[in-house]
Amino acid sequence: MNAKVYSVHGEPVKEIELADGVFGCEISRGSVYYAIRNELANRRQGTASTKTRAEVKGSGAKPWAQKGTGRARAGHKRSPIWVGGGIIFGPRPRDFGYTTPKKIKRLAMKSILSMKVKDESLKVVEDFTVETGKTKDLKTILAKLAATERTVLVLGADDGMIRRAGRNLPLVTFLSYNRLCAHDLYYGRKVLVLETAALKLNDFYGERRDGSGDGR
C-alpha cells in the first residue's frame, strides 16, 4: 500500500510504500486488549500494604477478665474487630507484572498501526530534527501536523534534541520504532511516523522477521 509523506509544513510531498502485513493487516482486537492490559499491569507499583494483627501497635495482654464483667470476650486490643486493630486479608506488597507471548505483542502492534491507517489518524512525515532543542520550535511543527491533539511521534533513531524539545509538551509522546507501546499508540489521537521509522517498521514487523507466511 502507498501512503503520502508530509513535510514539516503539513503538505504532501511524495509517497512511500508501506507493508500491507504491518499497516494493512486484519485487526485483532483481542491481542490489542491483552497487550494494553499487560503494559498497565507491569506499570503498577504494587506497594500498597496494611498491617496484620501481629504488626499493629498495641499490648498483647487480655484487656479484661474472660467472665464476670458483662462484656464480650476479648483476647487483646490488636484484634481485627477492634478499632485500631489489624486488617484481615488487606493488600500486601506484590508484583503485578507478567509476560505476554511475543507473537501476541507483535500482532497487537500491527493491529494498532493498521487501525490508525484505517481511521486516517496516521501520517508519515519527512525526517526532521529540532536543532535548537527548543519546545516552541517543535510545537510550531506539530501545530501544522496534529494541531493540539494527543500525539505520538514514532522515531527511526534516538534523537535527543527532539525528545528534549518535547519534554514540556504533555500531549506528545515519543516512541522508537523497535520499542512501541501499545497503550500510548492506541490512545494517541494522531500518530506521526517519521519516514525512516516507517521503512524500519516495514522490516521490523514484516513477514521475514515473523518467520511465517502471513506475519502472524
Spatial gap, N to C terminus: 19 Å
Q: How much helix, percentage-wise, in residues?
A: 25-40%
Our estimate of the beta-strand percent is 5-15%
- Residue windows where pLDDT falls under 50 for at least 5 positions: 212-216
Per DSSP, the total helix count is 8
CATH architecture classification of the largest domain: 3-Layer(aba) Sandwich
Major sheet summary line: 6 strands, mixed
- What is the residue-averaged pLDDT? 91
What is the SS-derived class? alpha/beta
Order of helices and strands: EEHHHEHEHEHEHH
- Under CATH at level 1, the class of the largest domain stands as Alpha Beta
Integer count of domains: 2
Number of strands: 6
| Fourth-tier CATH superfamily name of the largest domain | Ribosomal protein L4/L1
Might you state the CATH topology name of the largest domain? Ribosomal Protein L4, Chain: A
Across the major sheet, the strand order is 2-1-3-6-4-5
Shape: elongated
The Rg value, from CA coordinates, equals: 27 Å
